[in-house]
Amino acid sequence: MHKNETIEPDSRLKICSIRIRQLDGIIETNGPFWEERLMRPLDFYAEFRGEPPREGGVQKAESGFYLSQLFLEIEANDGHVGIAGPLWKAPARIILDELAPLLIDRDPLATEFIWDIMHRSQAHGRQGYGMIAISAVDCALWDLKGKCLGQPVWRLLGGKTRDSVPAYASMLGYSVDDEELVHTRAKAFKQEGFEGQKWFFRHTPAEGIDGMNKNVALVRTVREAVGDDYPIMFDAWQSLTYEYAVELCRRIAPYQPSWLEEPFLPDRIDVHARLKEKTSIPLSGAEHEYTRWGMLRFIEKQALDIYQPDIYWCGGVSEIIKIAALASVHDVTLIPHGHSIPAGIHFSAAQSPAQVPLIEYLAKWNDINMHFLKDAPWPQKGRIFTPEKAGLGMHIDEEKVLASRSFTL
Length: 409
Hints:
The chain is an alpha/beta fold. Helix content is 37%, strand content 18%. Strands 5, 6, 7, 8, 9, 10, 11, 12 and 13 form a 9-stranded mixed sheet that branches. Strands 1, 2, 3, 4 and 14 form a 5-stranded antiparallel sheet that branches. β8, α9 and β9 form a beta-alpha-beta unit. It is globular. The N terminus is likely disordered.
């Protein structure tokens, strides 16, 4: 091609289709899939406190947990398809109604440009479902970019720093009040090779001293099960008050937890900083914060020790790269929330282990989130290995799909 020649418009690589695909399937279970849920900010009100867990699917029989999940598919005119998901209904609707019209006929490799126009279009969606929708589009585009170029995303991010990343097990959904069961499972997950475990408090300040004692008992039981030199972490999922958190930290400090996660709602940055001054237990959080600007607010107040943005929520692969650069400038530890292992392993493997030492493996949630994926990156002896397939390795296992339908513009 001569220097002054131009490419015909219809021969350029471009996005030709954006669709949401609903997949129905079943996870075989031996009893209820969810045994327990975590504490929630709503649990301050008695009418919500007794609600059972009902996330990700429906338990229709003792042996079957039924899934109906939404996946985003972005197709280029060369036939490659980038996939992200599973998604919630609200961000899926934002993608179809508000973002898709911006994307048709765009260059799918122009991820910076596309992120910027999506972000600028969402004057009322800079956080929450709007940003989660942007994150899904961005992750699908990185999957598509890798497939178009025939490369795994970790290579596009600069190459891998290691062949595998150690994982800690997040025990959301397991019983927490049955001490014998907690003890047995904590030992079992340690023996599987996981580098640590995170358990989830169930009892909020509204339950008083009885709830406090149960939360402390959980910490004690896990520590006794795994021994003194094994990392254990505990998640309060934004549900504590300042006074309660100070007392809880005082009571559990002798058991040396590696961190207390999300003690308060994310907008209450000053309260995080006040608690950090009061306890020797490291604080983690920012899972429910969004973009580099949201992380910067926490960093400027020195409110956390460990930062946990979620790739599928904070802005996608394009944005977490910028968050990682910001974190490196301030020398803070980044351990992304584990909603998406397929995206998380590519990002984490491309970062310095000094800054991103671990990856989170949500034991039950990943059974749900990766159920429909072919060649999903399941842990091996407590480690997640870097995939070699192109893109983020997002391919649907059609043999697990009992029913399917698609929604477009």
